[in-house]
Design goal:
- The structure is a single chain.
- This protein is mostly helical.
- Helices cover 71% and strands 0% of the residues.
- The radius of gyration is 19 Å and the shape is elongated.
- The N and C termini lie far apart (62 Å).
């Protein structure tokens, strides 16, 4: 086997592990990831699987990164052609609703589940989750401030309050989709967001 093929095989195996890990973690939490279970499901040895990550924590951190990549692909990158400000904010929120509505991950919003799982803990996984959430709030803040400066939102808009309320709508949407299996939840989320984003 050529060195190039060996590297490609290693990367492909690592991606297969991450894809399965993310599916499990979105439904059962990051603590639901056990090396034994993953190895059995993927037809690998425990040592072979651990060889790609080293530790369970390293695997969890890689899954957080993988979840972020999926979210970026499904939400902000889908609307990157829209101008910053209210047009992009509206489209970002729609892409976010669609992402949850289409059940891209089997357990709904990975970050909602993982944050609830780790918010009371300390450590690198909790810090990674907090960092991802902070980056997303920063992006929302940029679009809201631009919308205010463009005159598309009221000049006295409380930016932090609006971020809080948008996040609240999305948390509620994930809850009603996952726990209640409420097919009306996306429509309700869209109505709530329209009220929030109308001048």
């Amino acid at each position: 086997m050529s060195p190039r093929r060996s590297v490609a095989d290693t990367l492909e195996t690592r991606q297969r592990i991450l894809d399965r890990s993310l599916a499990i973690a979105s439904a059962e939490g990051l603590e639901g990831l056990t090396i034994g279970r993953l190895a059995a499901e993927l037809g690998m040895s425990k040592a072979g699987l651990l060889g790609h990550f080293g530790t369970k924590e390293a695997l969890q951190l890689a899954v957080v990164d993988q979840a972020a990549e999926v979210f970026l692909r499904e939400v902000p990158r889908k609307v990157k052609q829209m101008p910053s400000g209210l047009p992009r904010l509206v489209d970002v929120c729609e892409a976010w609703v669609s992402y949850l509505e289409r059940e891209v991950l089997p357990g709904g919003c990975f970050f909602t589940a993982a944050t609830a799982e780790f918010d009371g803990r300390s450590g690198r996984v909790r810090d990674a989750l907090a960092g991802m959430n902070a980056l997303w709030r920063r992006d929302l803040r940029i679009h809201i401030r631009r919308a205010v400066s463009d005159g598309d939102l009221k000049s006295d808009t409380d930016v932090e309050q609006l971020i809080y309320e948008i996040l609240g709508v999305m948390l509620a949407l994930n809850h009603f989709l996952q726990l209640e299996h409420d097919s009306a939840a996306p429509r309700r989320a869209r109505q709530a967001l329209k009220r929030l984003l109308t001048k």
